[in-house]
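Sample entry (230 residues):
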Amino acid sequence: MAATEFHPIQMEPSAVLIHYDEIVKLGGLFVLQIIRDNYADKMKNYIDINFLRNTSDEDLFYLYLARTIYNPLEWLAIKEFNYEKNYEFFWKKYKNMFISARATDIKKTIDNLVDAYFINTIYIYSREYDARIDFDSQSMVQNVIHREKLKYVTGKLSAVLDKMNPDLVFYPNIMDIIELARLHRDIAFAIPNMAYNLTDNGEILGIDKNDNNIGIYPVIQVIKEPHYFG
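Predicted structure, serialized as tokens:
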């Protein structure tokens, strides 16, 4: 009997789009640490400064990932104020934010995707151009040969999806993209398994049985060692 001829599996070239802030680097966590260290007196009447002061950076990281409200200032608010305006102030103020902000495990995934032969483009996305994201996203890719696969794109997300037509999108907040996902059934959308994206039963918030192109992924891998808060 003649030997069976081996034909390697051929995969279509794929493109991935990744929202940088809160998917690759945790800008909101950086903001909370900056407030704790530099603006505690100014913000003590608005957010729970004692919580920030009495929580280690490592515990704060895990608690931040488990928060039930997307805006971290609203999450820790002790009275109503303009959460969005104040968050934007701190978010834009520090040039070193993304260099210094803690990375999630998807940063390792990007290194693997850049090296993968079936990935032709990784789009790093933000709504508006941000030089900090542009610099940080380029500097994190170790393989210089494959660095051209990484492209930074900006603009209205619907227009970016129409133009770039990625196969997979990583996006931090389900409520921002649920309608877009329904208009782009050919694109898979991956949402981090953060509490603000999930119902009490652990289901993705706001979706129905027809939303089969939306899924969740773990923002960090399972912790190998037990982690005790406090």
